């Protein structure tokens, strides 16, 4: 029998490992102790007379004994590290200098644990054989004796579908016994798996034999569910959740159950359950990517009277979908351990949303199974309880086009968003004042990009690599020849070739970058050791450097001067744990894509897009063939160009080679830009060989090729050392260069067109200005020449540009209205009587809804002093004399009695509920009456979304978190909490009504600071510079920070663009009006510009105003400061200065030269 042969082979190996371990841990120290006792006297005497007597060998023998003691101590230390780690099924930490001893200890421990764990299970097999757990992939649920499952489930169970299991590289290593115990609950059933795979050829070409060990990466065919005499009790109605990178139990409970405090229920339901990688959940703070967690029945803890979101009848009737055949079934959740008592719930969650620490149970070997067949968790509801909609993501109806972002990687998605942001920035810059950018009508595509992109990981990798280049240059050592990189949820890693010198210079890559970092080392300072990783990395394993998060990275402004060391990094895909794997094309040189023409095009296109948009490829040249001519026109970085056919690309490479050889005979040439060809067009064998010959001749140049393999008739075979990648498949494949399995990314045509539409819309011309925004002053290029000699020197501030370097708010504009705003403002001692009922006066303001007073809300006190004169601009006030009101903290909720929004037009008699809540989006999102703690920020985001975009439950769930959409229970809980927080009006009508039509929407009585801003700004524009400044100042004072916070949500893209434009126009209008007239107020103009730049520091129109203001003040140094500040911003954004700005600066410099 195969079982007998396999067990017979494992047992002697285990006994041998145990004997060796006993000999090393017990026998060796006994021998060393005996040798030490006998050699100590002669040895020490020989050491003391080493130079005066003839050596008898005693000193050498004593030194040899000391070496033996040291080696034994290192082995014991490694054993103490390996043993608990392998008992818990985890990778032991790497100890520096103990690699060989740790490897030996790990080999002995794993050999013992695998065999003896199997023996333990074998002895327990008879007891477990009566109640084995059925695989979770079978759709028919396990039922109690005597019960019959429903007909649809029975049909699903009888359907013959092939199931597979991929052997994982874990420690202890997996065996057929452990796999059978994991999947079927009984290791003795491994013979079923052995019989199903006997004689089959595995992925690496090895023929499967039951008596031979299995290897990681093998795909085993699983037999049908074995027949058993009894089945466990029915499992409660639960869902499963697959852990993603960066998840915590708190976040899972928050997303799936609507309350992070309920993480204890998930921990209790999954404690000690074996996972696919061999690990078990024993610590709520330690969950691994890929684990499948059982989610208890989600009963929202909020308002029980909240009506559930309208659901389709099929949502509750259909069973959970069965995973494809390639995926591994999760263990059945029918048997759950009781576990230790759940920790006490805390009243205030941790800021990081991590689960509070609980008492950790003693770890057990992953091969033992708790006998918990009769245990039922307390959180499971009774069978008679009303069924609750599962808190899982439903099928998207509106955004089906971009499900899971079509396999596009996070770097490509982040590059797309960066390009989109740049194009929208240029849209705002190149429009005329008063105009609006073209609207966005493809929000689903942008939301899909946000769901995948990880801007923080991109920036972290870029900063880490540039910091590495900086340290390498300072220490005078070459950069490591990296083959790729890995981006995980917590860090980034650099992958190095394991069989080469890790610090060898990569081909055709020069270390000298021309920066100041390349100077010689100071006297006495030695280069870094060649066996150590360069900062900021640490050497984890041979061939892998991990980022040391304790070391500081250079800031982005400093790294902008350091060329990226690896511009050829592109993402190939993700590994089974969700980590992103990148390959260095400049090291691999050739990447062959094996698949259908459509699959090759989809993968080649996403590689080209990522290479042309990533931050570390800013000094590279990318040539494409067969990907269309539209790409270069959509990308503003101008790194990409197309070639009509492969022959033209090869000719370009030949010219590059010829140019390099000609320069080799002359003076030293600067380092060559990396040249990358991405071809998706079919190629002939002869053309492929010609290209291979050219590549061989250009071995000293940083050249990389991405080509279709096309079998033996194409490029495959012309490049023997190429990396080959199967495309058009979602199955994991092993890439030897990276030493990992991965799933290849791709970008199908429909999704590419959806993303490209976003870029096309961002390049459309601006919409014509509409009333009253046609009154926004234009941006003339001509600079007004003023007679500075007629200006009183006392009127010119000593530091004219101090307004741009201070945090002082606009003066004399107060902060957001408070309870005192309804009182009569104090009159200035020198204030002249104001005209009765004049527009902008206190009396007129009292008649407006909300009792707005320009003197209190917009600095109208100074404005009214000039109303009786000839319409001149307000008298300039001293900066020191202006009051400095206390601004509210960012994100703080404003009082509920803030002024109400005024309807469009001048209709002061419109009824407005002064006590209605106000949604504030001109800064961090907040809602009056909702605290900025606990779930307050999420409720405020939900209120803002419903205010601008009332929608159906599925749409709301996706919009609130595109990366991890809210579950149904979470949405119901948040809606209930928001309804309770907003309350009702005086008539009892809810501000968040219960709409039976299935659309969540706020009451029309709910206010918004954005509408207050637009009304004040439009009213001020209509009045003109003589009386409208007060309204514009009041509108600008409403802006507390960047609209929607630092990172606007994807659904708010169109609103964010419009708000930024209107804030810039308002600040520009104020600056223009304040510096106009015979008595300009340059301080007020500066403050308006400063406020506008604090919201959008890329608004080039405001930099033009800044230069005009300082030119008018006669401060040429400040003009230069404004210009250089803009250049710094443009350099960071990788955009050029507009010709109008250059003309203004040139005019000022030429006139004052």
Automatic annotation (TrEMBL):
Q: Which CDD domains match?
A: LysM
Keywords for this protein: Membrane, Transmembrane, Transmembrane helix
User: What SMART domains does the record point to?
Assistant: BTAD
- Write out the biased-composition intervals (Low complexity): 140-156, 296-325, 341-391, 838-856, 880-899
Listed Gene3D superfamilies: LysM domain, Winged helix-like DNA-binding domain superfamily/Winged helix DNA-binding domain
Sequence ranges assigned to domain LysM in this UniProt record: 239-295
What InterPro entries does the entry give? Bact_Kbp, BTAD, LysM, LysM_dom_sf, WH-like_DNA-bd_sf
Q: Name one Pfam family in it.
A: LysM
PROSITE patterns registered for this protein in UniProt: LYSM
Q: What is this protein called?
A: LysM domain-containing protein
